Amino acid sequence: MWALTSVWYLSRGDVLLGVATSVVNGVLIAAAHEVPPLAQDMGLAVWQAGLGLFFIGWVIQFIGHYFEGKKPAFVDDLVGLLVGPMFVVGEVLMWVGLLQRMHMDIERQAGPTR
Question: 3-class DSSP state for residue 22?
Answer without folding.
Answer: helix
